[in-house]
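Example 461, ligand adenosine-5'-triphosphate.
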Amino acid sequence: MNRSTSTALVVDDDEAIRQMLIAVLTKAGYVVTTARDGMEAVAAFSTQRPDIVLMDIRMPNMTGLQALAEIRRIDRAATVILMTAYAEVGTAVQAIKDGAFDYIIKPFDIEEVMLLIGRSLQMRTMRDDIAALQRELSASYRMDRILTNSPKMLSLLQMVAKVARSNATVLVTGESGTGKEMIASAIHYNSTRSNGPFVKINCAAVPEGLLESEFFGHEKGAFSGAVSRRSGRFEQADGGTLFLDEIGDISASLQVKLLRVLSEREFERVGGDKLIPADVRIVVATNRNLEEMVRQNLFRQDLYFRLNVVTLRTVPLRERPEDVRLLSSHFLQRFASENHIDVDGFDQNAVECLMRYSWPGNVRELSNAVERAVVMSTGGLVFAEDLPENIRCGLEEGSDLTVTTEPDDRDKALRDLISDYEARVIAEALTRNGGNRVKTARQLGISRRSLLYKLQEYELT
Ligand SMILES: Nc1ncnc2c1ncn2[C@@H]1O[C@H](COP(=O)(O)OP(=O)(O)OP(=O)(O)O)[C@@H](O)[C@H]1O
């Protein structure tokens, strides 16, 4: 903060102190206004919003403490320094608990006052910077960062917006790489907890024996290796959202403990006996079928019910071909700029490959494929040859579209083999889309007219 433009409000019923502070602060470059009691102070604060308030505690009409409460009601981030006689230090300490920045004891040393004011303004600048950073961060998780042209995804995002407003526990299900974590962060950053922390833990990535301490923290000496007290993710997420990814992977005993926190809203650190309140909104995700796990007694039914207050299902990429085009262009631009490669777009064959492939790894796989293609390209257009081989051929692992040459195929010309393959791909896509030619053409990345032509050519009508 630029000190020359900082504003200060001096509040004291003692005229001499007011004059003295006006003189010193003005000399130091502050713009100073004054008030004679708490009531005037609150009125001045609400119209002028000074950067700092220097206020006596004992004043007529409204005391400094009452005024502090009123000022904090107007702006919780107000910076207030209280002035007090030695006998009132106990009250001043209480005032700090109530949100005052600090206090000074009268009679005070003017240098000490200036130092304190400087420090408080520094803190204020830091706090503003952090808030701006948090806003930026939350903006980067805003829903408009989730790119989609798919009606299914748009209705999912509408649900996300509704759910975000509540405090309900949310279960996000869906295949790997479909954006479950993105949905969880969108819930957090669009909720009333968005200024609190968004803490995540991948339950499958932490060894089973350590997961309980990762969740709840531990006391010093709770187990060998617990050399000091450590807070867990529940504590770190206090006032915010805790995202438990791969929840289907937690042990039976941890399921019991999680159920307890969800119902009682408090927990103990491992090796501790103090109950710690859990002011945390829980979002969990899994790509496993929890219902089936419940049937097989692998997941507690009561926990499943607790987690399943609202379920959001992400949409696999193969069910939203419109997003393949949108996301591949987005990733192309992103990776081109990150790698300083001058790329204009995809060549038509590359687009066809991208549209034809069924993306078992979903958006993550698409992002990796485009990154590779951009890196492999020599600039200009990205060609099919730049894509990973399986995508170039429209194959995913285990695909029944594998091209095998039958004994009588061996004599066929390459052109005929390619035609046979193309006919199979088109027939498959047509079946997948229930015979809808518009959808099939869009998915294959070819025009409707060329689809009709190929249908005739291959007698697929
Ligand atoms: N609609 C989208 N728009 C932009 N980027 C997306 C979209 N969906 C997913 N992504 C990106 O794809 C990647 C995978 O998404 P995310 O990690 O959220 O998936 P996930 O379902 O949680 O995966 P996993 O189950 O493997 O943990 C991330 O880099 C994410 O930013």
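Summary: Residues 146-148, 174, 176-182, 245, 287, 327, 363-364, 367 surround adenosine-5'-triphosphate (CB under 6 Å).
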